[in-house]
Amino acid sequence: MRPLDRIRSIKLKFSIVIVVAVAISALVSTIGLRTGIPIWVRPFISATIALAVTYPIARGMTSPLREMVAATEDLAAGRPAGPICSTSRDEVGELARSFDAMRTQLDEVDRQRRDLVANVSHELRTPISALRATLENIVDGVEPAEPEVLQVMLRQTERLSRMVAQLLDLARLESGGSPMHPRRVDLGPLLAQAAAEARLHSPDTEVTVTCPEGLALDGDPERIHQVVANLIENAVRHSPPGEQVRVEADAVGDRVELRVLDAGPGIPPDEAERVFERFYRADRSRSGSGGGSGLGLAIVRWIVDLHGGDVRVEERPGPGCCMTVVLPACTEVPT
């Protein structure tokens, strides 16, 4: 800790430095007058002693500014910047801590950008490689163009198309390029429709809906449907065949609480937040064709945040996972 770090005002620190310099000058003049030091020598002695005393203090006061300048130059040149020393409690210390927080956020954004490029490359390369290998076999006559083979190729193409669509959708949400159209949304019919769509794609999984009559919320109906559909799709994908996926909704004060429960392997507590990151999968073994794109829950969080709500993973007794979404209830009286 530097000498004046405990003082909370930079103006008071400068005042102390000035007072010290003046006091040194007065002390040297008094001593010089009593010892007979020539009057023209006294200013040089005063300045030398004052500089020797106040320079370390002033340097300690401004060192965070020099560190921030160096860090800014590193960031501008694309180099990683080190942490800023911010032990001071004054305005410069507050600025240094804010700058350090910004630097940390920039490092995290840069890490996410690198991860995104690597993940997109991997996720696109996998189906493209499978398509290329199959097409080469068909062209070379190694494998006949049978309906089963073409069906596999179609599924890979659909997976590519779905992933690109989700990436574009997520980019629009993050950039604000996808406007919201909030209005009253009756939750019962919306949940029933999303469950019916899930049953069409996965007839082996039973999807049940429990929702009080008349329960409604304020939001964009298309986006709310997207949230529910993504959560149900995720639950169905991770549930064993023949198991049940439950969709429940209740009013809790001025909020609506929506829960999607499955009987899958669940999500470890230490990964409960990371599952909402792009391309993150709690079950690494599902990164191939058996898993999703890794974008569904990221889209869910963005949409819920835009509605002023919250989405989280909640623990439940026994196996399975419970995804809970909390959104503002509808304040409009139906006509």
From TrEMBL:
- CDD domains per the UniProt record, alphabetical: HAMP, HATPase, HisKA
GO molecular function term, any single one: phosphoprotein phosphatase activity
Question: Under the cellular component aspect of Gene Ontology, which terms does the record hold?
Answer: plasma membrane
SUPFAM superfamilies (alphabetical): ATPase domain of HSP90 chaperone/DNA topoisomerase II/histidine kinase, HAMP domain-like, Homodimeric domain of signal transducing histidine kinase
Which topology term describes how it sits in the membrane? Multi-pass membrane protein
Say which domain of life the source belongs to.
Bacteria
Cellular localisation: Cell membrane
Q: What's the main place this protein lives?
A: membrane
Q: What are the entry keywords?
A: ATP-binding, Cell membrane, Hydrolase, Kinase, Magnesium, Manganese, Membrane, Nucleotide-binding, Phosphoprotein, Protein phosphatase, Stress response, Transferase, Transmembrane, Transmembrane helix, Two-component regulatory system, Virulence
Q: Which cofactor does it need?
A: Mg(2+); Mn(2+); a divalent metal cation
Q: What is this protein called?
A: Signal transduction histidine-protein kinase/phosphatase MprB
Top EC group: transferase
> Which PANTHER family does the UniProt entry name for this protein?
SENSOR PROTEIN CREC
Which reaction(s) does its UniProt entry say it catalyses? ATP + protein L-histidine = ADP + protein N-phospho-L-histidine
Please name the InterPro entries in this protein's record.
2C_sensor_his_kinase (IPR050980), HAMP_dom (IPR003660), HATPase_C_sf (IPR036890), HATPase_dom (IPR003594), His_kinase_dom (IPR005467), HisK_dim/P_dom (IPR003661), HisK_dim/P_sf (IPR036097), Sig_transdc_His_kin-like_C (IPR004358)
E.C. number, please?
Answer: 2.7.13.3
Question: By its UniProt entry, which SMART domains does this protein fall under?
Answer: HAMP, HATPase_c, HisKA
Q: Give start and end of each HAMP domain.
A: 59-111
Q: What range(s) does the Histidine kinase domain occupy?
A: 119-331
Q: Where are the transmembrane segments?
A: 12-33
